[in-house]
Write a structure and sequence with these properties.
The chain has a two-stranded antiparallel ribbon with strand order 1-2. The chain is elongated and about 125 Å long. The protein is an all-alpha fold. It has 5 helices and 2 strands. The termini are far apart. Among the domains are: 13-46; 66-138, Cytochrome Bc1 Complex, Chain D, domain 2, CATH 1.10.760. The structure holds heme C. This is Monoheme cytochrome c, putative. The chain crosses the membrane at residues 16-36. InterPro entries: Cyt_c-like_dom_sf.
Length: 160
């Protein structure tokens, strides 16, 4: 092998080496670009939240907002005594435990007595009656979609 040949070969070698380095360098740049972009966008704009994340209401949010007749925070139906029920019936368990039940006034009272005897529910005092009225009005047992047909009705004419 002549000197010239050797020289040509080493030039070629350097050339290849430089090309590989260049490609590698560009590769590193691309990876850096995406990781930095990911890091900045995901932490500042849209933080990754757990699937069961619930937004905690801030001071400015209206905690007792009512929309379409429903107390938004708890799901209770709007009505007289609503706030008493919210204040007395949602600190130990979810409001759902209340709203998914349908009972007569007596049964609601029995449930309250049971909680007072076994679950440390406090004496509701003067609030007991309005609470019971609210519960037995809006969470009454006979809320079937449609009433039964009337039978044996004696119709009479309305007089002025
Ligand atoms: C001091 C805590 C506490 C308060 C306040 C409280 N409860 Fe309860 N309540 C409980 C516990 C504990 C249970 C049982 C929960 C369970 O079974 O997981 C319960 C269960 C219930 C149940 C289900 C009963 C059943 O037979 O399954 C209803 C309905 C209910 N509560 C309604 C109310 C209402 C209405 C109020 C407001 C007057 C209220 N709770 C306030 C502690 C409380």
């Amino acid at each position: 092998m002549g000197v010239e040949e050797k020289f040509k070969q080493s030039v070629k070698g350097i050339h290849t080496l430089l090309t590989i380095l260049l490609i590698g360098f560009i590769g590193v740049l691309i990876i850096l670009f995406f990781t930095i972009k990911d890091a900045t966008t995901s932490t500042t704009n849209s933080p990754v939240l757990p699937p069961d994340y619930v937004e905690v209401p801030t001071q400015e949010d209206d905690l007792d907002k009512i929309e379409n007749g429903i107390h938004v925070r708890t799901g209770f139906v709007e009505g007289e005594g609503l706030l008493l029920v919210v204040q007395n019936c949602t600190s130990c368990h979810s409001a759902k435990l209340v709203t998914q039940n349908r009972m007569s006034k007596e049964k609601w009272l029995a449930t309250i007595r049971w909680m007072q005897e076994t679950q440390n529910l406090w004496d509701l005092g003067v609030n007991e009656e309005p609470i019971l009225n609210y519960l037995s009005t809006y969470y009454a047992p006979n809320q079937i979609g449609r009433r039964a047909n009337l039978e044996n009705v004696e119709w009479y004419e309305l007089k002025e």
